[in-house]
Amino acid sequence: MATYSTNRAATQLRRRTAWTALVRTFRSDTPGLARRLGAIPRMIGATLRGRYDGKSRMTMMLVSAAYIVSPIDFVPEGILLFIGLVDDAAVAAWFAGALLSETERFLEWEKRQEAVPGHVVG
User: Which of 7, 47, 59, 92 is most buried, judged by most C-beta within 10 A?
Assistant: First the structure.
């Protein structure tokens, strides 16, 4: 396992919790929803090519999306009504937040890839 120095850890791209990402989407100092959604195909491509480190988070998002659309449910609505809907809503909220968080992180990664050493990126 690689050990990171304090400076290295401070420059790492930050992953936010899904819930925090939902709130941050509406702040003026973060990328807008259209920009984030437009980044999804590039993020998938960069991840599949091994250039971006989002594989585990994207895998979790894929599993949660499959759970949401799947007719198989861990807590079926037909039997437990409200509780069955709550688990689906929680997974959907996590998925939306994770997607927003990861696209923001990806956009920051793209910005760093374009940076030229010795020049300030604004």
Answer: 47
Three-state DSSP string of 80-107? HCHHHHHHHHHHHHHHHHHHHHHHHHHH
Distance CA 97, CA 106 (A): 14
DSSP 3-state assignment of 117?
coil
Q: What whole-number distance in Å separates Cα of residue 13 and Cα of residue 92?
A: 24
| 122 residues of the chain, pLDDT tens digit each | 443 333 444 345 666 666 677 777 778 888 888 899 999 999 999 999 999 998 999 999 999 999 888 877 777 777 777 777 788 888 888 898 889 889 999 999 999 888 666 656 55
Q: Where are the domains of the chain?
A: 15-114
